[in-house]
Specification:
With 286 residues, the chain is an all-alpha fold. Helix 3 packs parallel to helix 7 and helix 3 crosses helix 12. The radius of gyration is 23 Å and the shape is globular. The chain has one domain: Orthogonal Bundle (MetI-like fold). The protein has 13 helices and 2 strands; from the N terminus they run αββαααααααααααα. It has a two-stranded antiparallel sheet with strand order 1-2.
């Protein structure tokens, strides 16, 4: 190996070690643990084969948490992607104090999830909450939000919009790379703002939309913090990750919980592959 190649190898060696020790080895261990009965409290590990997976698919609680998570994902993912894109287009304009607006919209993405949950506990409070207070000003009696099973999902959809600003960095970077010559040509042809948006901006942004869509799928199915802190009436706040956490650290069924984690991995991988297959039909590449 040449000296230059050795130097490059030494630079990436810490990353390789970290990948092996903190990612690959735990994944291999998790495969084994998923086929065992392990309470994590003691050291006794009993091999049970596929029993954990058989028990999972017979569990009504598993299907209930999966259905809640799927309903949330199918609505929140396009909602957040669309909202983030619209905000980014607005913030890409050369307006006064645009930098301040960008900071304001991005800051919620870096706030702790627990802190956000506590804030929304007040915002969604049916008696003294901000949303119901505003609704009362226009003569509308607000719902019970998290205390009404029918309004638990809308509550979490509202909370999902809080972090919509997290994707504006990638969108703004991509918007700066859209050739101005395309807009100039469209202006010469008499195109209006909406036509330029739908026929130039959106097609040129599809690679970033694709990226944020993948990230959105992963985030939606891994929803945990606010759901764990806030819950929801009628068990409607028991998302998949909350169910997994309770099995692992409330019932001490680590083998069962690990099997749940692998099922979640397969679900996320499935939808990611589906989106990746369809990208050739709608993602614009130069």
């Amino acid at each position: 190996m040449k000296n230059r190649e050795k130097i490059g190898f030494y630079f990436v060696l810490p990353w390789i070690i970290g990948l092996l020790v903190f990612t690959l080895v735990p994944m291999i261990a998790a495969v084994f643990i998923g086929f065992t009965d392990w309470s994590i409290v003691g050291s006794n590990i009993r091999w049970v084969g596929l029993a954990n997976y058989q028990e999972i698919f017979k569990s009504e609680q598993f299907w209930h948490s999966l259905w809640i998570t799927f309903r949330f994902a199918i609505i929140s993912i396009p909602l957040v992607v669309f909202t983030s894109f619209v905000i980014s287009v607005m913030l890409s304009k050369n307006i006064k104090a645009v930098g301040v607006y960008r900071i304001i919209y991005y800051m919620p993405a870096i706030v702790s999830g627990v802190a956000v949950s506590i804030v929304f506990r007040w915002i969604l409070d049916p008696n003294n909450g901000l949303i119901n207070l505003v609704l009362s000003w226009i003569g509308i009696k607000g719902p019970n939000w998290l205390y009404d099973p029918e309004w638990v999902l809308p509550s979490y959809l509202i909370m999902s919009l809080w972090g919509a600003g997290g994707g504006i960095l990638t969108y703004l970077s991509a918007l700066k790379d859209v050739p101005t010559s395309l807009y100039e040509s469209a202006d010469m042809d008499g195109a209006n703002y909406l036509q330029k948006t739908f026929y130039i901006t959106v097609p040129m942004m599809t690679p970033i939309i694709f990226y944020n869509l993948i990230i959105g799928i992963i985030s939606a199915f891994r929803k945990f913090t606010d759901a764990y802190v806030l819950g929801g009436a009628g068990g409607e706040g028991e998302f998949y990750m909350v169910h997994l956490y309770e099995q692992a650290f409330a019932h001490y069924k680590m083998g069962y919980a690990t099997a749940l984690a692998w099922i979640l991995f397969i679900i996320i991988m499935f939808f990611t592959v589906i989106v990746n297959i369809t990208r050739k039909y709608w993602v614009h590449t130069e």
